Amino acid sequence: MADPADRQIWTVDVQGYALDLPIVPIKPDFAISLMMVIDLGVKFGAHIGAKLAEVLAPLRPDVIVGPATLGIPVAIEVTRALGLDRYVVLQKSPKIHLGDALEQKITAITSKGEQRLLLDRQALPLLAGKRAVVVDDVVASGGSLSGALALVRQAGAEVVGIGTILTEAHDWRERLGPDAALVRALAHIPQFTRPDPAAPWQPIPDSL
User: Rounded distance, CA 69 to CA 58, Å?
Assistant: First the structure.
């Protein structure tokens, strides 16, 4: 087991809020800096809610949508900061009331294998004919987000924007295609590589 003292961090400025994120290996030569928004406290939640609301308010959204799990606190805080009330959660766990839910299969860089996003049909009236913004914590590969966008559109909403705390590298741009232009982010983080296991992690240069 690695010595915690050797653990590397990556510091990112999220609109005036400094975060020290641990660098977590995905493969021997590839790592990401991991943000667990549910562990960052009430003040950070209020901060990102207010900052995202500033950039999303001009889009005049009627409803905010967040995919489980880490998109839920983002959706709550953005909804609160915009002065809205109801928000929509796209679930991943097949709970008993979701037997006839709308469904999209997704993949994500921080999860193993294929997953599902589920939209409760009881939430359809909140989306049909409405201006929707989809929010999440981090956009990396774009797999989870593209599934969320498909579900929201299937429900009859117009997606007018995408809000995220962080964008990671740039793979998501190709996955999202024209929808990449809808993304509004508070900060950006790279991915990391190293020549051998004894070397420190180095950010992979971004290429657009």
Answer: 27
173 assigned to some structural domain: yes
Nearest to 186 by CA among 74, 67, 88: 74
Position 3 in a domain = no
Residue 48 and residue 74 in contact, taking contact as beta carbons nearer than 8 Å: yes
Element (H, E) at 203: strand 202-203
Position 76 in a domain: yes
Distance in angstroms (rounded) separating the CA atoms of residues 55 and 36: 22
Structural domain tally of the chain? 1
Burial of 42 (0-12, 13-18, 19+ CB in 10 A): exposed
Contacts of 193 (CB under 8 A, 6+ apart): 29, 30, 31, 201, 202, 204
pTM of the model: 0.89
Q: What is the pLDDT of residues 63-117, one digit of tens each?
A: 999 998 899 999 999 999 999 999 999 987 666 565 566 677 766 655 555 678 8
Contacts of 16 (CB under 8 A, 6+ apart): 47
Alpha-carbon distance 64 to 126, whole Å?
10
